[in-house]
Design goal:
alpha+beta; nine-stranded mixed sheet; 12 helices; seven-stranded antiparallel sheet
Length: about 525
């Protein structure tokens, strides 16, 4: 059944393995924290795989089975092949029909943002985990495999809202809370603990304690969005961070801005990466935003488990309803932040946006010149794209390739990656909700419920007291699916506390060739 196994690292070497009845074991004492992949060469072609949507499919390009997708396939001789653990990622080479790759610690498999330098340039730090190679195995069964539900509503889609409170006021909080209560929708609601803001009306727990407590009573999870809206001095900020007392038993932390104690700025200050995690863990925080979005939600872009939704072709199709000016603005931002995602191009985009604002406001030649320089830098990537559009338009964004939705920061602390949604007309369309239903999809949304900036299409609020009438029908349809138990709408805390069981999942196979779970998780499962 197995012709060969290799561990591919910086130095590829053949790896010893041996067959025990119905499974193949790796003969290795290695603990690897570097990037590596295991290459399995079968004696039979792979004819079918169990995909992220719980459907059997023929092998296809860009296939990825991350932690929360079934690691299960079928060979031409009708044997089911299943991983004994959910960790890592399964990939295929479409040109080799009998080869499977099991990947660990690859670039962008577990990415978090780090801001560096005076200009706060964004770098992506790919985290690694120590893997005990000898504990990995493949199970061979003639009868069945087992797949596990990502949702407590068995094998349903999942939609989780995380909201950033940058634009919250007392009035908008009250309007939103009453709307969500009417719709039976729950959220992970960010809040500022203390009032220190350039906008006097900005909400905080210090000033709006009673209203925010009503959110918790309505079933929402309250999450720290750092501690203040504006920046204090570095000394004051760290003092506030060290002395603050927890509220709401909040377990979720969402970095805001360039607060010096944020996880995303931990490399800039003398305090280490572990300082931020350890300090917050001592206050009950276990779940951190990676400060990364998989992409922008628009029509056709919603399921973070499906890498093929995160391409220029799908995104451009999703925004075709907009006028040319709007399409161009969205396309440039999407190109810089998601298709390219490099520090250089994001800096170019920021420079372009800043120069444009200043040139229009101040009308100085200096800013016009800076605008031209930034535009030239961005034009280069456009020309490259146009020359190779047939290929580049289908290329999966680098930070979406491995679907890193929830992953470990250490043994008990987890990071999560989001999908940005500011347009609740297109992003939360009936079509997108149906995609989640059909694909049993998963999205953790990064939202700004209270935003009222003019250039934002499809805002949730028309004004502080009025829900945008164009989005109400979308929420009504979403609510119907949740109440019918066709979609799970958890808070982030609920979602991670269920999903993290995948990291301790262990399978085995008995003498008769039946796969079973050796670990004691409460994950919902079924034979396939």
């Amino acid at each position: 059944m197995i012709l060969n196994i290799e561990i591919i690292t910086s130095l590829s070497e053949p790896t010893a393995f041996f067959l025990k009845k119905n499974k193949v074991l790796i003969n290795s004492d290695a603990f690897l924290s570097e990037s590596f992949k295991m290459k399995f060469t079968f004696s039979e072609p792979i004819i079918s795989l169990r995909d992220h949507d719980y459907l059997w499919k023929a092998p296809y390009e860009n296939y990825n089975a991350g932690v929360f997708a079934p690691k299960l396939l079928k060979l031409k001789n009708n044997y089911y092949i299943q991983a004994n653990q959910a960790i890592g990622s399964w990939r295929l080479d479409i040109n080799e029909d009998n080869v499977l790759y099991w990947c660990f610690n690859e670039i962008n498999q577990n990415p978090i943002t780090q801001y560096v330098g005076e200009s706060n340039s964004r770098l992506i730090n790919s985290l690694t985990e120590e893997i005990e190679v000898g504990k990995l195995s493949l199970l061979f069964s003639k009868s069945h495999g087992i797949e596990y539900s990502r949702s407590i509503v068995p094998f349903s889609g999942i939609i989780c809202f995380t909201d950033h409170c940058d634009f919250d006021s007392f009035e908008s909080l009250e309007t939103l809370r009453e709307f969500f209560k009417k719709m039976s929708i729950r959220t992970t609601k960010g809040f500022f603990l203390n009032h220190f803001s350039k906008r006097a009306e900005n909400a905080s727990y210090e000033n709006e304690k009673e209203e925010l407590q009503k959110w918790e009573r309505d079933g929402h999870e309250m999450a720290y969005h750092s501690l203040t809206q504006s920046l204090r001095s570095q000394t004051e900020a760290f003092k506030e961070f060290e002395l603050f007392k927890p509220e709401f038993s909040s377990k979720t932390w969402i970095d805001h801005g360039y607060q010096p104690y944020n996880l995303s700025l931990s490399s800039q200050f003398k305090e280490s990466y572990n300082y931020t995690i350890d300090s917050l863990q001592s206050k009950g925080v276990s779940y951190f935003w990676s400060y990364i979005d998989s992409g922008f939600a628009t029509n056709g872009v919603i399921n973070q488990l499906n890498p093929n939704q995160f391409t220029l072709k799908v995104f451009n199709k999703g925004i075709k309803k907009f006028v040319l000016k709007k399409r161009m603005a969205l396309s440039i931002k999407n190109l810089m932040f998601h298709y390219d995602a490099s520090s250089k191009q994001i800096d170019n985009y920021k420079s372009l946006a800043s120069s444009l604002k200043k040139a229009l406001k101040q009308k100085s030649l200096k800013h016009v010149f800076q605008l031209i320089q930034s535009a030239i830098s961005i034009q280069k990537i456009f020309f490259t794209l146009l020359l190779k559009w047939k290929t580049t338009s289908k290329t999966v964004y680098p930070l979406s390739e491995y679907t890193p939705i929830v992953f470990k920061l250490n043994k008990s602390v987890y990071a999560f990656q989001t999908l940005e949604m500011t347009d609740f007309v297109e992003g939360l369309s009936k079509n997108n909700i149906n995609i989640l239903l059909k694909e049993s999809g998963l999205c953790i949304l990064h939202t700004y419920f209270s935003v009222r900036l003019e250039y934002h299409e499809g805002k949730l609020l028309q004004d502080e007291h009025t829900i945008n009438p164009h989005v109400i029908s979308n929420f009504q349809y979403l609510s119907e699916q949740v109440l019918k138990n066709k979609l799970w709408n958890p808070t982030l805390r609920e979602l991670i506390e269920y999903l993290k069981q995948f990291y301790s999942l262990k399978l085995d196979i008995d003498e008769e060739g039946a796969i079973f779970e050796r670990s004691k998780t409460s994950l919902i499962s079924r034979k396939v």
